[in-house]
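Lecture notes, continued. The same structure-token format from the folding unit now serves as the input rather than the output. Read the line below as a description of shape only.
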């Protein structure tokens, strides 16, 4: 399994709106791509901003290519990102997942 990590920052007042927009764009497009295995969004507050980290999970690099295009190290951005005053990281990180376990109590 491969984890793909992307980060961005938005002004605090755009946080909820952008999170919804992220579901309608990145999550929706990812989940429609064969080989997609799940996603997580992390959020943390900064001074007047919110940082969001999107982790998507994939079965193999070829599936990420189908989603991201030829250069999988480049972030996939969307036309209305600027509406939310998005400060995106323009590159993404990929990791081999060597442990993937959640507590059965969750």
């Amino acid at each position: 399994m491969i984890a793909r990590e992307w980060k961005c920052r938005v002004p605090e007042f755009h946080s909820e709106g952008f999170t919804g927009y992220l579901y309608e764009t990145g999550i929706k497009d990812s989940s429609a791509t064969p080989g997609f295995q799940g996603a997580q969004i992390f959020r943390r507050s900064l001074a007047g901003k919110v940082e969001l980290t999107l982790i998507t999970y994939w079965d193999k690099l070829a599936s990420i290519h189908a989603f991201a295009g030829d250069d999988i190290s480049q972030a996939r951005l969307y036309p209305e990102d600027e509406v939310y005053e998005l400060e995106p990281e323009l590159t993404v990180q990929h990791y081999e997942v060597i442990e993937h376990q959640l507590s059965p109590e969750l």
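Point for the exam: The two ends are 21 Å apart (CA to CA).
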